[in-house]
Predict the 3D structure of the following.
Amino acid sequence: MRVLIMDKTGGLETAQERFVQLARHSDVDLHVLAPRHWMEHGLPIEAAQVQPAGYALHTGRVGWKGYYARGFYVTGLLRAFARSQPDIVHLLEEPWSFFAWQAVWAAKLLAPRSKFIFYTWENIYRDFNYPSRISFLQRRIDRRLHRRSAAAMCATEQARSVLELKGFQGTIEVIPYGVDTPFLAERIEPALPPGAGPFRLGYVGRFLKMKGLDILIEALSRVKDCELILIGAGDWEEPMRAMIAKKALEKRVRILSPLPRDKVPSYLASLDALV
């Protein structure tokens, strides 16, 4: 069985671990398509430097690096389909993204009998409306992928409910997020000094308003003896900083750039609560 996985983060070490495990199945001929260069949470990912073990890695140039829904392949897409001749196309992309549209188009040309599986993180029902000026186009892509796909995987039961509300007719399986191995160490030294200071809240991820960061900052302004650590990067960083200044919270909020994977556990160990 030939499987082609499309994954914009295919250059991440955690992604490679997943691919190696899948490739160990004797009945799977695994191929992976990933951007040569990608930006994830403000950090560069270089798939071109990956040495695949047990699977074939295909790379291509992409436009709009770091934009989940708007990224697209400039080169490499058709070559990956032609070389892999997939029986299954597994999309680790947003189902309304340009990547998804390109996958359906390429399969129509080069793998018309292939089965599609997609993975979705969407846990808020929006009735095919997206926070974008091209929502009308993303709506068409999403619906087209739903019709084309035989199955979908979700991270949560809420995501399953959203798919059902959107009318997806294929098989749906819930597969929660795994835990990265550095987080399983018996003892993790905190990166920030502990003490009898204020209660320490933390957030790690993309700085996007849709993540509810405005609500988090507003909540912080209403409580005392509490500080906030924000780790990441994103389009809403400047408005976020402006809101922090407007609320006079500069002394209670610490903003850190995106961290390497092996540094994250130490910062999480420094928190009293993670949002």
